[in-house]
Amino acid sequence: MFHIANFENNDDVNVLAQLGAFKVIEWKRDLSVTPESAAQAWFCSEMNVRRRQVICDLSQSAVTVQAGAMQWMVGDVRANTGVKGVGDFFGKAMRGAVTNESAIKPEYEGTGTLVLEPTYRYIILIDVANWGNNIVLDDGIFLACYSSLKHQAVMRSNISSAVGGGQGLFNLSIQGYGALAIESPCPAEELIEITLENDVLKIDGNQALAWSGSLDFTVERSGKSLIGSAASGEGLVNVYRGTGKVLMAPTAFA
Predict the structure, then answer these.
(1) Listed residue (245, 218, 17) closest to 133, CA to CA
(2) What is the pLDDT of residue 148?
(3) Residue 121 contacts by C-beta under 8 Å, 6 or more apart in sequence?
(4) Which of 16, 43, 162, 187 could form a disulfide bond with 24, CB atoms 3.0-4.6 angstroms apart?
């Protein structure tokens, strides 16, 4: 039996979102300041530059997290590597190498509470079922998910996606039923969600955070010819074709 005081019930903490086993909290301001850093801390708070964390209730589901994301845990919590054998290890190592994600993502199960490291990025909770049970993530934004979800490296539809799109040839696909937490460069209020029904979305730049696994993703010339693309000043664009959804930031991100 355990009891946590002065954490979620702290008047300096806001609960931003909750989905299943995941709860996102935000610290309104940083009180651990010195006279030299007080002004910077105040402006950070006013401009929404704040620490955010994910609290995982393992009694609802076992979770898989990005390597190094655990900050502290209490109660009945059992951790393992999630590796089920030599073949599974090499498969995960290969997937990590091509998707720029950690090769081994630890899994936590039990009835206790797991708290992830604070981040200044924005944490978005997603129900994978709302994405046709298959969502593809841009590199480096995965934070945590239900351990029941399957991870798979998916290849772009053409090699030019890697060469011309400024991104890798593979992405991490999350499949199944359950909740997912990602780290976004901008808050949920600014994210644009576009639903396609046998249609095409073209984006000039790296703005897409996630998209349905049912979509065909390629990189193509913005015009019908090289001369047309050069004249328009756009060049190559990321193209999402088919039926599904795309979650995108309002501006390109690193």
Answers:
(1) 245
(2) 96
(3) 52, 183, 184, 185
(4) 16
Could you write out the DSSP letters of every residue in 120-160?
A: SSEEEEEEGGGGTTEEEE-TT-EEEEETTSEEEEEE-SSTH
The rounded distance, in Å, linking the Cα atoms of 217 and 208 is 11
The pairing of beta strand 52-57 with beta strand 22-27: antiparallel
Reported for 94-97, long-range contacts at CB under 8 A and 24+ positions apart, including other chains, are 94/153, 95/151, 95/152, 95/153, 95/170, 95/172
Distances (CA, A) of 133 to 136, 148, 212, 213: 10, 12, 9, 8
Amino acid letter, 60:
Q
The whole-angstrom separation of Cα 142 and Cα 63 is 13
Q: What is the pLDDT at residue 17? A: 96
Q: In 3D, which of 146, 138, 219, 151 has the Cα closest to residue 185? A: 138
**Which amino acid is present at 195?**
T
d(CA 49, CA 125): 19
CATH code that applies to domain 13-185: 3.60.160
The single residue listed with the structure tokens 């930031």 is 249
- Give per-residue pLDDT as tens, 168-203: 678 899 999 999 999 999 999 999 999 999 999 999
Task: Look up residue 124 and give its two tokens.
Answer: 């978005």
> What DSSP character marks residue 225?
S
Enumerate the domain spans of the chain: 13-185
> Mean pLDDT lowest for which of 13-17, 67-71, 108-112, 235-239?
235-239
117 CB contacts (<8 Å, ≥6 apart)? 53, 68, 69, 70, 71
